[in-house]
Protein backbone atom coordinates (compact mmCIF):
# COMPACT_ATOMS: atom_id res chain seq x y z
CA UNK A 1 0.00 0.00 0.00
CA UNK A 2 1.55 3.12 -1.05
CA UNK A 3 0.41 6.15 0.69
CA UNK A 4 1.95 9.52 1.04
CA UNK A 5 3.46 10.43 4.26
CA UNK A 6 1.14 12.49 6.43
CA UNK A 7 3.30 15.61 6.02
CA UNK A 8 2.96 15.50 2.25
CA UNK A 9 -0.83 15.28 2.52
CA UNK A 10 -0.86 18.28 4.83
CA UNK A 11 1.37 20.14 2.45
CA UNK A 12 -0.93 19.56 -0.45
CA UNK A 13 -3.99 20.49 1.62
CA UNK A 14 -2.12 23.53 2.79
CA UNK A 15 -1.25 24.47 -0.80
CA UNK A 16 -4.90 24.02 -1.81
CA UNK A 17 -6.02 26.13 1.12
CA UNK A 18 -3.44 28.78 0.23
CA UNK A 19 -4.57 28.76 -3.38
CA UNK A 20 -8.17 28.98 -2.24
CA UNK A 21 -7.35 31.83 0.16
CA UNK A 22 -5.39 33.62 -2.56
CA UNK A 23 -8.32 33.27 -4.96
CA UNK A 24 -10.77 34.56 -2.30
CA UNK A 25 -8.43 37.42 -1.48
CA UNK A 26 -8.01 38.26 -5.15
CA UNK A 27 -11.79 38.17 -5.70
CA UNK A 28 -12.41 40.39 -2.69
CA UNK A 29 -9.63 42.73 -3.75
CA UNK A 30 -11.13 43.01 -7.26
CA UNK A 31 -14.59 43.58 -5.80
CA UNK A 32 -13.28 46.32 -3.50
CA UNK A 33 -11.33 47.93 -6.35
CA UNK A 34 -14.49 47.89 -8.50
CA UNK A 35 -16.48 49.47 -5.68
CA UNK A 36 -13.81 52.11 -5.10
CA UNK A 37 -13.75 52.88 -8.84
CA UNK A 38 -17.54 53.08 -8.88
CA UNK A 39 -17.56 55.38 -5.84
CA UNK A 40 -14.84 57.58 -7.35
CA UNK A 41 -16.87 57.88 -10.55
CA UNK A 42 -20.00 58.73 -8.56
CA UNK A 43 -18.13 61.34 -6.51
CA UNK A 44 -16.71 62.85 -9.70
CA UNK A 45 -20.20 63.11 -11.18
CA UNK A 46 -21.50 64.65 -7.94
CA UNK A 47 -18.62 67.16 -7.91
CA UNK A 48 -19.41 68.13 -11.51
CA UNK A 49 -23.10 68.51 -10.65
CA UNK A 50 -22.25 70.66 -7.63
CA UNK A 51 -19.93 72.75 -9.80
CA UNK A 52 -22.75 73.35 -12.32
CA UNK A 53 -25.20 74.20 -9.55
CA UNK A 54 -22.70 76.58 -7.96
CA UNK A 55 -22.21 78.35 -11.30
CA UNK A 56 -25.98 78.75 -11.63
CA UNK A 57 -26.18 79.95 -8.04
CA UNK A 58 -23.38 82.47 -8.57
CA UNK A 59 -25.10 83.81 -11.70
CA UNK A 60 -28.41 84.15 -9.87
CA UNK A 61 -26.67 85.70 -6.87
CA UNK A 62 -25.04 88.36 -9.08
CA UNK A 63 -28.38 89.16 -10.70
CA UNK A 64 -30.03 89.38 -7.28
CA UNK A 65 -27.28 91.65 -5.94
CA UNK A 66 -27.57 93.93 -8.97
CA UNK A 67 -31.34 94.20 -8.48
CA UNK A 68 -30.92 94.77 -4.76
CA UNK A 69 -28.47 97.56 -5.47
CA UNK A 70 -30.94 99.17 -7.90
CA UNK A 71 -33.69 98.95 -5.29
CA UNK A 72 -31.46 100.40 -2.59
CA UNK A 73 -30.57 103.31 -4.86
CA UNK A 74 -34.24 104.29 -4.88
CA UNK A 75 -34.93 103.36 -1.28
CA UNK A 76 -33.97 106.45 0.56
CA UNK A 77 -35.63 108.63 3.13
CA UNK A 78 -35.82 111.31 0.47
CA UNK A 79 -39.23 111.76 -1.12
CA UNK A 80 -39.81 110.61 -4.66
CA UNK A 81 -40.97 113.33 -6.98
CA UNK A 82 -43.58 112.46 -9.58
CA UNK A 83 -44.67 114.57 -12.52
CA UNK A 84 -48.04 113.20 -13.58
CA UNK A 85 -49.22 115.04 -16.66
CA UNK A 86 -47.52 118.25 -15.54
CA UNK A 87 -48.72 118.11 -11.93
CA UNK A 88 -46.08 117.52 -9.26
CA UNK A 89 -46.50 115.05 -6.41
CA UNK A 90 -44.14 114.01 -3.62
CA UNK A 91 -44.37 110.67 -1.89
CA UNK A 92 -42.23 107.83 -0.62
CA UNK A 93 -41.07 104.64 -2.22
CA UNK A 94 -42.88 102.73 0.51
CA UNK A 95 -46.20 104.34 -0.46
CA UNK A 96 -45.73 103.74 -4.17
CA UNK A 97 -44.72 100.09 -3.75
CA UNK A 98 -47.29 99.21 -1.10
CA UNK A 99 -49.26 97.26 -3.72
CA UNK A 100 -46.41 95.22 -5.19
CA UNK A 101 -48.37 93.88 -8.15
CA UNK A 102 -49.22 97.40 -9.32
CA UNK A 103 -47.63 99.65 -11.96
CA UNK A 104 -45.63 101.32 -9.19
CA UNK A 105 -44.47 98.03 -7.68
CA UNK A 106 -43.16 96.98 -11.10
CA UNK A 107 -41.68 100.40 -11.87
CA UNK A 108 -39.64 100.54 -8.68
CA UNK A 109 -38.86 96.82 -8.41
CA UNK A 110 -35.32 97.27 -9.72
CA UNK A 111 -36.04 95.13 -12.77
CA UNK A 112 -36.95 98.11 -14.92
CA UNK A 113 -34.14 100.57 -15.61
CA UNK A 114 -35.29 103.99 -14.43
CA UNK A 115 -33.89 107.38 -15.11
CA UNK A 116 -35.51 110.43 -13.59
CA UNK A 117 -35.97 113.63 -15.57
CA UNK A 118 -33.35 116.38 -15.32
CA UNK A 119 -35.28 117.90 -12.41
CA UNK A 120 -35.18 114.57 -10.53
CA UNK A 121 -38.83 113.68 -10.99
CA UNK A 122 -40.33 110.67 -12.71
CA UNK A 123 -42.63 111.68 -15.53
CA UNK A 124 -45.85 109.74 -16.03
CA UNK A 125 -47.77 110.61 -19.18
CA UNK A 126 -51.24 110.63 -17.62
CA UNK A 127 -53.77 113.29 -16.68
CA UNK A 128 -52.69 114.42 -13.23
CA UNK A 129 -56.03 116.04 -12.36
CA UNK A 130 -57.24 113.13 -10.21
CA UNK A 131 -53.95 111.52 -9.33
CA UNK A 132 -54.12 112.81 -5.76
CA UNK A 133 -57.04 110.42 -5.14
CA UNK A 134 -54.89 107.54 -6.37
CA UNK A 135 -51.95 108.64 -4.24
CA UNK A 136 -54.12 109.04 -1.14
CA UNK A 137 -55.52 105.55 -1.68
CA UNK A 138 -51.95 104.21 -1.84
CA UNK A 139 -51.21 105.99 1.43
CA UNK A 140 -54.32 104.97 3.39
CA UNK A 141 -56.09 102.14 1.50
CA UNK A 142 -59.20 104.32 1.68
CA UNK A 143 -60.93 106.19 -1.12
CA UNK A 144 -62.84 109.34 -0.42
CA UNK A 145 -64.77 110.74 -3.39
CA UNK A 146 -66.68 114.00 -2.92
CA UNK A 147 -70.42 113.53 -3.32
CA UNK A 148 -70.66 116.39 -5.78
CA UNK A 149 -68.40 114.55 -8.28
CA UNK A 150 -70.26 111.38 -9.33
CA UNK A 151 -68.40 111.29 -12.68
CA UNK A 152 -65.14 110.89 -10.78
CA UNK A 153 -65.71 107.17 -10.11
CA UNK A 154 -65.38 106.28 -13.80
CA UNK A 155 -62.28 108.48 -14.24
CA UNK A 156 -60.64 106.95 -11.16
CA UNK A 157 -61.48 103.44 -12.38
CA UNK A 158 -59.63 104.18 -15.63
CA UNK A 159 -56.62 105.42 -13.66
CA UNK A 160 -56.74 102.47 -11.24
CA UNK A 161 -56.73 100.12 -14.23
CA UNK A 162 -53.79 101.96 -15.78
CA UNK A 163 -51.83 101.79 -12.51
CA UNK A 164 -52.98 98.18 -11.99
CA UNK A 165 -54.09 98.68 -8.39
CA UNK A 166 -56.39 95.69 -8.05
CA UNK A 167 -57.83 96.64 -4.64
CA UNK A 168 -58.84 100.07 -5.94
CA UNK A 169 -60.30 98.59 -9.13
CA UNK A 170 -62.53 96.30 -7.08
CA UNK A 171 -63.46 99.13 -4.72
CA UNK A 172 -64.57 101.22 -7.72
CA UNK A 173 -66.71 98.37 -9.04
CA UNK A 174 -64.41 97.21 -11.82
CA UNK A 175 -62.88 93.84 -12.54
CA UNK A 176 -59.21 93.09 -12.42
CA UNK A 177 -58.11 92.46 -16.03
CA UNK A 178 -54.36 91.85 -15.63
Explained architecture:
- By secondary structure, the chain is mainly alpha-helical.
- 59% of the residues lie in helices and 7% in strands.
- The protein has helices at residues 6-74, 93-96, 103-107, 131-140, 152-162, 166-171, and strands at 80-84, 87-91, 122-124.
- Strands 2-1-3 form a three-stranded mixed β-sheet.
- A hairpin with a 2-residue loop joins strand 1 (80-84) and strand 2 (87-91).
- The longest helix has 69 residues, at 6-74.
- The protein is rod-shaped, with a radius of gyration of 39 Å.
- The N and C termini lie far apart (108 Å).
- The mean pLDDT is 85.
Radius of gyration: 39 Å
What multimeric state do the chains show? single chain
**Strand segment count:** 3
Strand order of the largest sheet: 2-1-3
What summary fits the major beta sheet?
A: 3 strands, mixed
Number of helices: 6
Molecular shape: rod-shaped
Determine the strand fraction and express it as a percent band: 5-15%
Q: Note the run of SSEs as H and E.
A: HEEHHEHHH
Distance between the termini: 108 Å
**Mean pLDDT across all residues, rounded?**
85
- State the helical fraction: 55-70%
- The structure class reads mainly alpha
Uncertain stretches: none
